[in-house]
Write a structure and sequence with these properties.
The structure holds two protein chains of two kinds. By secondary structure, chain A is mainly β. Helices cover 0% and strands 48% of the residues of chain A. Chain B has strands at residues 4-7, 10-13, 19-25, 31-38, 42-51, 54-57, 65-66, 76-78, 87-94, 102-103, 107-111. Classes of the chains: A mainly beta, B mainly beta. Chains A and B meet through strand 5, strand 6 and strand 10 of A and strand 4, strand 5, strand 9 and strand 10 of B.
Chain lengths: 119, 112
C-alpha cells in the first residue's frame, strides 16, 4: 500500500488562480515528518517544506501555504495567485524515524502532481 | 556551498556494460540514499547508507550495488545494466532524522 497518496496526477490552471495539491499519508508512527518537493522542468528536486507530526500549525511562505491535518492524515499544499514559473511536478513525502530502525535518510514519496500554469 | 554532486548527468549505455554513477556530498552527512524516478511511480528508494560501511536495501535494489567507503561518497553500481534500468536517478544526503534531504541534480540513464 502506498504510504503517500497524491490523487491528482495532473492539474492545469490559469495564471493568478489559486490551486491546492492534495497529499494523504499513512503511518502508524506517532513521530514522523512530512515534506513537499518541487521538480521544475529542469529536473532537479527542490525542498519546499518539512513539517513534524507534533506541529499542526499551518505554514505560510509568500504565495505558498500548507495545511497539515492529522485527523485526516493530510498535508495539502496551496499556491495562491499561481504563476507560470510554478509549473512543475510536486512531490509529497513521508519519513518515519522508527522505520525498522533505519535512519532518516529514507523518504517515501507520492507519485507526484504535475501542475501546469497557463499564461 | 552545500551540495550533492552526481556524475554523469546523462548517460547512454548498452545492455551488460558495467557502469558507475558517482555521488559526493560536502556537508559531512551521515545518511545517503539512491532513488530512481519513473513516470507515474514517483521516486523509489534503491539503497541507503547510515554511515561508512553501513548500507541496506531500499524498495527496488535488484540489479544495483552500492558502497560507502568514505563518508562523502556513495557510488551506485550497475554490474550488468538492462533496459528496465533506464530511469532518472537521484542521490540524496541528510544530516539527521527528519531533516529534508539534499538531492543531487539527477542522472538520466538510458540503457539500450
Amino acid at each position: 500500500a502506498q504510504k503517500v497518496t497524491q490523487a491528482q496526477t495532473e492539474i492545469s490552471v490559469v495564471e493568478k488562480e489559486d490551486v491546492t495539491l492534495d497529499c494523504v499519508y499513512e503511518t502508524r508512527d506517532t513521530t514522523y515528518y512530512l515534506f513537499w518537493y518541487k521538480q521544475p522542468p529542469s529536473g532537479e528536486l527542490v525542498f519546499l517544506i518539512r513539517r513534524n507530526s507534533f506541529d499542526e500549525q499551518n505554514e505560510i511562505s509568500g504565495r505558498y501555504s500548507w495545511n497539515f491535518q492529522k485527523s485526516t492524515s493530510s498535508f495539502n499544499f496551496t499556491i495562491t495567485a499561481s504563476q507560470v514559473v510554478d509549473s512543475a511536478v510536486y512531490f509529497c513525502a513521508l519519513s518515519e524515524p522508527s522505520d525498522r530502525g533505519s535512519t532518516l535518510g529514507r523518504l517515501y514519496f507520492g507519485r507526484g502532481t504535475q501542475l501546469t500554469v497557463w499564461p | 556551498e552545500a551540495q550533492v554532486t552526481q556524475n554523469p548527468r546523462y548517460l547512454i549505455t548498452v545492455t551488460g556494460k558495467k557502469l558507475t554513477v558517482t555521488c559526493s556530498q560536502n556537508m559531512n552527512h551521515e545518511y545517503m540514499s539512491w532513488y530512481r524516478q519513473d513516470p507515474g511511480l514517483g521516486l523509489r528508494q534503491i539503497y541507503y547508507s547510515m554511515n561508512v560501511e553501513v548500507t541496506d536495501k531500499g524498495d527496488v535494489p535488484e540489479g544495483y550495488k552500492v558502497s560507502r567507503k568514505e563518508k562523502r561518497n556513495f557510488p551506485l553500481i550497475l554490474e550488468s545494466p538492462s533496459p528496465n534500468q533506464t530511469s532518472l536517478y537521484f542521490c540524496a544526503s541528510s544530516s539527521r532524522r527528519g531533516f529534508g534531504a539534499f538531492f543531487g541534480q539527477g542522472t538520466r540513464l538510458t540503457v539500450v
